[in-house]
Each structure stands twice: as structure tokens, then as C-alpha cells.
Amino acid sequence: MSDDWKAGVVQTHVLKDGLLARFGEGKVRIRQTRDRAWITVKGPRTGISRAEFEYEIPLQEAEEILSLCELPHIEKVRHMVPYGGLIWAVDIHQGPLAGIEFAEVELEDPEQPVPLPPWAGDEVTHDPRYRKATLLERAAALTQPASPEPF
Fold this sequence. Notes:
This protein has about 150 residues and is mostly beta strands. The protein contains 2 helices and 7 strands, in the order E-E-E-E-H-E-E-E-H. Strands 4-3-2-1-5-6-7 form a 7-stranded antiparallel beta sheet.
């Protein structure tokens, strides 16, 4: 992905995500910005779609719930960039996932045509290496202390 998206940024948020629970192919996530927080329940994927239910929760409760989540938490800066009649979210990961950048867009219909911005990189929607669970495993491996050598 090139940096050309930066000229179109209309809004920026710092996000912290924690994985509270996994069930089957779904998950429950807590997300927090500086002044708001949500709990999100996501069902299994069907193609590029999945059921998703999101509820705003008090910020103080989110901070307490984040302490119950698996580590590491995902930290990223999200930039909102309009392109092709859609609003793209460009995520720049921080912490153990620093250097990973994604551009994604929410669609009204899974069959909706998606004009890819010229600054977007490779399409990775169906690549399991870029799923959040895989990234969390990678981040956990990077943040865990090395096991002591056996005697």
C-alpha cells in the first residue's frame, strides 16, 4: 500500500481492541477509543460477510473488560479515507504488530462492486494470514518471553 491515501484522510481515531471470547467461528471483542467504547459480537464468515452486533458501553467498563481480554491487545490508528463513493478505513497497527497496514471498507451488500483505490495494496480478504486471529497469534508470539532452557 502506498502513502497516497494520506492526502484524503477526513478523520482519525486511535483504537484499542481486546478479544474477550471465541466461540465456534465467532468472537466477542471490546473496542475503545479515547472517549467511546463498544462490545462487538461477530458470527462465522459466509464468504466476505458475517453477522455482527455492536453495542456502545461505558468507557470505564470497557477499560475493566479489556483487563479480562486475551493479550496482547491490538492497537492501531484508523484513518477514514473516502474513495469511489465509499469510506475506507486505513489501519496502521502499533505495538507488536507495528508495520502492518490494512485498508478495508464496509459494504451494504456483499455483491456490491468495490472500486479499489490506486493506493491500496494486494487484496487479502480471503487470505487466512491476515485474519485478526492469526495476527493476534503472531502478536502473542512476539510479546511472550522466551522459555528458559531446560537443564
